[in-house]
Give the backbone structure.
Amino acid sequence: MKRKVGAAVDRETWNNLLLSFPAPHFLQTWEWGEIKEKYGWKKDFLVWKDGQGNARAACMILLRSMSFLRGCITFRIGYVPRGPLFMNLEDENRQQVLDELQDYAKKQNAVFLKIDPEVISATGMPGEVGEVISEDASGFQNELKKRGWTFSDDQIQFRNTVILDLSHSEEELLAAMKQKTRYNIRLAQKKGVQVRVAEPDDFPLLYQMYLETSLRDGFIIREQQYYLDVWNLFSAQDMARAFIAEVEGDAVAGLFLFYTGKRAWYFYGMSTNKQKEKMPNYLLQWEAIRYAKTRGCTLYDLWGAPDDFTEADRLWNVFRFKQGLGGKVQRSIGAWDYPARKGLYFFYQQVLPRLLAITRKHRKKSMSLEMNQNS
């Protein structure tokens, strides 16, 4: 298997290559790399081909340099969001990819390289009837451990998720939902909730709802311009669509849906405290599911499930909502780091989290101020 490093590709060539893989991900698209370049990263591309020129693996790598202590310490890091992509996980295939990713990290003088391949370790809830464990994933994890890769403390993306199979009819999808979920969808319809497609002019409104959601639920988000850049670019490329739920013309909830190949992702969700008793989020999800089916998507990724499937997990309540839609739990091996410069990697792991905690505290204060100014 031969590798083509730093492949000179354009948007169309790269995205078409992604679509040739069994499970392309929108976080590996040219557009995602384009957004990240605007915010301090550099994108690079690696492609592995067999003797006949057919792609066997590929990834977009994001590279970034960061300075600390007034420039006294500079880190370069690499990240492969939801990649590499593999045609299969045969030993020779994955071994060569890992060999050359490790070489790449060293040549780039990176402190570490993080990969986050969507290698499915299991489907179904842990320990429950119907759980299926993947031997391929276990072999991949063992390979990573033998090579000195470490399971990352910083997972970036959700390790687990909930997937809906959209190959069924709308009637079958509704029947597969929990009874309470079906009831709430119909209640929202009966109570006058309307769902419409959002236009770019609505995106600042979606951000304000997202900001309100983050403050209510206790998570940190970025500045408004970042989301406007993401939403506008992916919408312009017809790779995403936003929806707004309204009651008597008043926006009460929103949802941003991405799609690549045969999969759609519910990636951003936002809501207010208004009209919650009318269950707008249930109808919003149902309309997004129906739209994904019209685009030919066969999978609907609800993006995010607990790391630990217990009520103590921070995602438990959201997870129960997603479960009600009739999906199946899908667990992956998560993100793994290759520490190419072990001493600096230790410093990065031990010191940087404290610096980031200070930054997040400052950001949370700024978000509260922004919210008050806009209220």
User: Anything to note?
Assistant: DSSP finds eleven helices and 17 strands in the chain.
